[in-house]
Amino acid sequence: MQDVQRIVGNRIRKYRKDRGWTQDVFGDLSGLNRAHVGEVERGESNVTIQTLKIIADTLKVKIEDLVRGI
Question: What are the C-alpha distances in Å from 15 to residues 7, 48, 70?
């Protein structure tokens, strides 16, 4: 399961960095705690579907883009 979490986290980090956002900025935009964002990006947190939807909406991507091919 950690491999899945790490892959999703890496994709989230890539989309965030592509937008030039720090974790603090992303946290502010999404309403998520910056520390939690870091845990998700490192694959240390098993995100809920609700949190994944918040992340995808903030990044303006589909949830599918975050989990495709896993």
Answer: 13, 19, 17
